[in-house]
Design goal:
The protein is an all-alpha fold and 403 residues long. The protein has 15 helices and two strands. It has a two-stranded antiparallel ribbon with strand order 1-2. It is a multi-pass membrane protein.
Amino acid sequence: MMEGARQRGGPPVKGDPPQEGGGGGGDEEGGVALKKEIGLLSACGVIVGNIIGSGIFVSPRGVLEQTGSVGLSLLVWGGAGVVTAGGALCYAELGLAVPRPGGDYAYVMEAFGGLVGFLRLWLLVLVIFPTTLAVIALTFASYLLQPFSPNPCPSADPTLDPALRLLAAACVVLLTGLNWASVVGATRLQDACAAAKLGAIGLVIVTGLVRIAQGEYFWLAPPQAFSGEGGAGAWPGVGPLALAFLQGSFAYGGWNFLNYLTDELIDPPRNLPRAIFISLPLVTLVYVLANVAYLTAMSPQELLQSQAVAVVSSAPLTTPAWPHPALTTPCFFPQTFGEKALGRALAWVMPLGVALATFGGVNGSLFTCSRLFYAGAREGQLPALLAMIHLQRRTPGPALLVT
């Protein structure tokens, strides 16, 4: 299947070069193992890069709608970050107690045995990861085409459907090749995409802070923020508040992906919790400030009428824009947050920034899912071919291809 590939822990093949010792190149059984090449910075890039995606541009509407007020919605965003950080730290303890790749799958195997682990594995590899990867890739294609498309909503234009699908497929193929070629290259790309995402949201935040300095903070003042007038019109009950937390938590999804890569993390006892301590507070702060910035350029009523607030029109929608029956990707409209806050000359920066965010999401999903296939094959619950890694590159090539 792949020249130079050998199954981890398998018998040596005649003519093979001697196995590397120490340095993360081999393992205790003398076989070939994945290298430990993910340091603290790359670990933070994995977490931040997988968390920040289109969620921060889509979820604000749902959170505000369920909470009924601007102030409470901001508290929910902060609270969801605190809850997520707590879950991530518990997950870090699991990762150190069960030092095997595979994340959820490895822990379910350890706690409930092979059958439950097998069901969890196949649910992930047949349903959850493939559909997530496809949706993120299609979202990337839609955002990338938006500044160059005559149609303000590329995913709703049937004539652009082939271009969207081809661009999404090209994105997946390109990133699969990069992940096959080099772990370091894939992690550096993830770091760059994480920086681009923070840059795009940072532009939103700086714009919001400038507008606050200019006196544009009517809906953030306490009398309006907690009056209920800026949201759905009434204080929520327990049910709507729980739904608001669910909407906010969607934007924090991906916090657990680093645990899938413990075999490749340098010094996991130190770097795994450190990466969480750095990444989760950073993402929480960024999300809260981004929502503050949105409300300096858009009224709560305008935000409730929009879909993806940073790139979607604040004008009332006459037809449901998302999800589209063919592609589950956000649609776009001429009047955007970027145009209102940055002006038409810089409005293209926002969809481009979100495109980079989703591009990093595709890379992170490929990186993580391939390690899940690899872990399942090592446990004997997937074909042994998927546990093979390239002798020189130390990347799980067959697992990447199947992903």
